[in-house]
Description:
The protein has helices at residues 3-9, 15-31, 46-50, 58-72, 88-102, 111-129, 168-176, 220-227, 259-278, 288-297, 303-318, 330-337, 344-351, 381-388; strands spanning 34-37, 40-43, 132-139, 142-149, 155-162, 182-187, 194-197, 200-204. The protein is an alpha/beta fold. The chain folds into 3 domains: 3-50, no CATH class; 74-208, no CATH class; 259-388, no CATH class. It has a 6-stranded mixed beta sheet with strand order 3-4-5-6-8-7, sandwiched between helices. A hairpin with a 5-residue loop joins β4 (142-149) and β5. The longest helix is centred in the last third of the chain and has 20 residues, at 259-278. The N and C termini lie far apart (76 Å). The model is unreliable at 218-257 and 355-379 (pLDDT under 50).
Amino acid sequence: MSLEDIANCLHINKASEYKAFTSMLSKMEQLGSLSWDNECLCLTHFEERQSQVPSGTKEAVRERVSRFREGKRVTVFPLQPADESPHAQAASDLREQIMAEFKQLPTFKNRQLEHEAVREVLIRLAERKGYLYTQELLTEQGRIDVVWSDSNHKPIAAFEIDDTAPQENSLAKLKAATSYPLRIIILRRSSVPLGLCEEILVISIEESIKETPSPPPKDKDIDKDIEGEEENTPLQSVTLPLHTLGKQGDSSPDVTGSPLQDKINLQEKEIFSHWIQQKIVNHKVLTSKMEGSIKSVLKTYTQQEICQAITNYAEIVCGIEYRWTYKWTLEDFLHRGLEKFMDGEVARSNYRIDAGGDHGKKQASSGQSGAHQPGAQAPTRDEYRQSLK
C-alpha cells in the first residue's frame, strides 16, 4: 500500500491532517520504529515488542504474590516483656493516651475504618504535643503509617498499625527506621497490653475498641409498634466516623458527635477567622467550598503553617514596599498562593520592590506613615514609586 492508500484507510482527507500524518511517519522512520519493505510499511521488532515481558510471566507474578503474602504474614514470635526497653514507660503512657482518645469514637463496622481512626488519633496527639507528622512515609522497606518529628524535623517516633499480631513487613520497616528512637506497632486486637517483639515495642488498644452490637431479633410485635408510631417522631442524632465525611453530597445529614470531626471543624473556623483578621478580602460567611479547600490543605500542612502563610501574604499584599498587589479570595489563596507565601523570608525577598538601599523600606508621605493601616487600601506600585521621587 502506498502512503495515500494508508491515509484513505484512516479517513485522512484534509491537507493539514495529511501533513501531520506524513510528518509523524517520517519521524518514526528516523527513530527506527517504522521501515518500508517494498510497498509494505512494517513495525520494527514487532514480535519482540508484543512478547511478554519477564515481569509478566506466571513465575514472576507467583513470586510477587508470594512476597506480598509473606510480608502480610503475622509473626510467630511470642511477645516478650517490655521492661527491657528504655522506652517502655513512654510506650505505656502513649497507649493510655491513644485509648482515652479512641474510647470517645463511635463503633466501627469494619477493620479498615478502625485502622484509619487510629491513624487520625496519632495525628491528633502529634498536633497536641506540638510535633510535626508525616503519613505513609516512604522508605526502602515500604511505607510507614505515621511518623513524628519535632519542629526541627528531628525524628521522634514511628508507628505501624496492625490487627491482631505484628506483621513481618511492619517489623522490617520499623527495624530499618533506626533514626527514630521510639518505634511502636499498635495492635487493634490483642490481649497483651504491652510487649516487645524483636526490639520493637508493641502496644494493644483492644480494650478501648467498642464491639459492634449484634442486631436484635426480629419481632412482629416490635414491627407493629414501629408502624404505629407517629410520623413526626424526631430522628436520633447521627454519628459517623471521620472517614465517611466529605464523601457525601449536600443532602447528607448533619454529622455530629465525633471528636475528630469537631477538631477539623475547629481548625477550619480558626483558619477562616485568621484570614478575616488580616483584612485582605472580607468574606461574610465560611462557605462549603472554603471548608473543602481548607480541609484539603490540612492534609498536607498544619494549621500553624497555613495561618503563618496567610500572615505573610497579608504583610506583602498590604505593604507599600512590595510589588505584589493582587488580592486573592481565601479559596484562591489556598489553591494558588499558599506555597508561595509559606516561607516569609523568601516571599519578602521575591516581592520587595527594591531589595537594596533606602527604597526597600516603607516611606512616609503626605503626613501618612508607610505602615499599612487596618482596613486601608494599599497603594499601587505606580503610586509608591511616585512617592519616592
